[in-house]
Amino acid sequence: MDINQDKKTLLLESALELIRDHGFHGTPVSMVAKHAGVAAGTVYTYFQSKDDMIKELYTYVKSQIYLEISSKDDPRLPFQSRFYALWKNMTGLYLAKPSFQRFMEQFISSPFNTAELQQSVDVWREWLELFFQQGIEQNVLRPLSPKILAIMVLGSIISQIRYLTYFNSKTQLMEEELGLIPQMVWDGIKRQELSDSYP
Amino acid sequence: MDINQDKKTLLLESALELIRDHGFHGTPVSMVAKHAGVAAGTVYTYFQSKDDMIKELYTYVKSQIYLEISSKDDPRLPFQSRFYALWKNMTGLYLAKPSFQRFMEQFISSPFNTAELQQSVDVWREWLELFFQQGIEQNVLRPLSPKILAIMVLGSIISQIRYLTYFNSKTQLMEEELGLIPQMVWDGIKRQELSDSYP
Amino acid sequence: MDINQDKKTLLLESALELIRDHGFHGTPVSMVAKHAGVAAGTVYTYFQSKDDMIKELYTYVKSQIYLEISSKDDPRLPFQSRFYALWKNMTGLYLAKPSFQRFMEQFISSPFNTAELQQSVDVWREWLELFFQQGIEQNVLRPLSPKILAIMVLGSIISQIRYLTYFNSKTQLMEEELGLIPQMVWDGIKRQELSDSYP
Amino acid sequence: MDINQDKKTLLLESALELIRDHGFHGTPVSMVAKHAGVAAGTVYTYFQSKDDMIKELYTYVKSQIYLEISSKDDPRLPFQSRFYALWKNMTGLYLAKPSFQRFMEQFISSPFNTAELQQSVDVWREWLELFFQQGIEQNVLRPLSPKILAIMVLGSIISQIRYLTYFNSKTQLMEEELGLIPQMVWDGIKRQELSDSYP
DNA sequence: AATGAATGAGCTTTCATTCAT
DNA sequence: GATGAATGAAAGCTCATTCAT
Known about the structure:
Four copies of one chain form a homotetramer. By secondary structure, chain A is an all-alpha fold. Chain A has ten helices and no strands. In chain A, 71% of the residues lie in helices and 0% in strands. Chains in contact: A-B, C-D. The interface between A and B is large, with 58 and 59 residues.
């Protein structure tokens, strides 16, 4: 059972690495098997189909993100500190594991990602909404739906990562500017008088 | 020439619709041809290969977005009004043309999207950076790189659209909340004293 | 009629050049048309089909060879001189027009070349057999079937050409040896006591 | 390993038979597979591509010829006997395996046959050149390049086979004449006073 | 006669999946 | 459980040929 879990994880990690470089459709099952050092047929001992493997990959990556981020959060700290820590940990994780980011982006924009899936229960999303819920309850964040706050913040983190990925080489000078992004986002979501709204 | 352009556009639009529903790899060339009412071989009169068609699709969609958005911008208005108009027009365009959004998301997260492509010249990106440049020059926006501002704002718009796409049915109650998102983003990017930074 | 003939010849020559480099199946009709400066459809004004064009090419090349070689033969000379002249003119022609040789070789070894075709009437072959017939009648050649003599001699010429084509660069030293080949062939076919036959 | 070799050989033999009748381009991979009793995809387990299969076919046929002919040569016999045996064995092999001859002719006159390939190492060609080298060293053959002798002799054998293939039906009377061809060739290559050369 | 866009049959090739060993 | 050769549906693409202009 333990060994089996190890082999399954090995396959998932192999798939992740290959998908990072070649995309879903540039990554045949046989390539995943070879990279993991097993025979092609063996993949079907652990997954019902390639599609099934990709769906499990989604679950796997999300749970890895959840474990990594939630374990580093200290609820006893002031919320603003927790927010900056979340930002730092998320960007750190994605930069350390580009395969996570590449996979998630591809998955989300693929036909695998259905409305049902998005609305299904999900520990990571629940944790994240609870996180923002706490910010609201502590009167630190604007009293909006935590779901919306979560999406806005995660979206901004992805944008920053994407930027670093594509322009990294050219833009070391701007690194300090990039450090301002979480502050901008924080300024957007923190409790405050809303600016002159636009009718 | 005119007819040819029409047929090429017809093929592009057909591809866009089908890719929205089935993804790049769920959309064979034959399906695009059938949907456009031509023979499979005809596609190759207008595109060198399927990959070439997808790259042209990217150019096509970007130029459509550019035309739509830039034509609706009035530089004589105060910048904040222009910002809200941009937001409204972008979300309106993406909601009216879901195929545009689905395609762009898939393209960006696919292996088609290379670093070189991201760094190449692009009217739409240039227009967008000039837009934010003007906000900075008018002392309305924070003095950051317009590139970064553009990415943050576009990323947030995409996040909002994604949210609407997946949760729309359940969440009519939140619509007013969604209307607050551009205000949050505006609060994040407008010139102001930065909040207590986090060391 | 004259202009038409010119265009047909132009197409034939274009086809020949392209087939030399790319082979029958590497030479689409559209490529021939483009090379000749006409539209693809125009080819079908002059030929019923691509296969038909290839068959006409065979006739065309053979008649060109026939015209070239027969016009340079002087029946008043001693036969041995005529033989060496034939050899020289054939090798000269093939080296000057590699497209002729490449085409003929390909045609002969292709499914186009049927037994019927080989046995059909053919001015070039008839001229050639008459040539060797005269050698026999003049008691200079062995009294064999002129058909067989023709095939032996032509086959040897082809062999020599092939050798020059593939080993030319390396083998300038051997050129004088190559000059001995027609003498060897002459020694083989000239009237003489046959060597000790092998039972 | 043994089974795999068997199946590969089965595919090669199937391809050979079909190419004999239909030519390279009249023989789809699917036809080869069907003839061998396997699925189309299976061909790609043994060959990287159709082109690759054709190149392997060339190697295969040449090695078969080499094995057949070299095994039947007895170097202890007088050279003239060995020469006539070579002739007889070659014509016998080609007549017994017309697919060998058809394939080799097509291959040689196709774009597959490059100058590099012709100049590459090749056991069969080396054996053949050594064969003629021995004739020279035994003072039986003219002191020419063995390469040239090999080409001349092989070319003549091919010519004879071609003749038999196309005129066989009509020409039983000539069979005795055909038997004279190797004697003519022998007379051409054997050591002797060259005939009156032609300036 | 000439054009060249359109056609679609037919090809090569890939790859998810199966199953005898 | 593991293997990997075999499968065959399905894809991308080519190109001989047609036909409205």
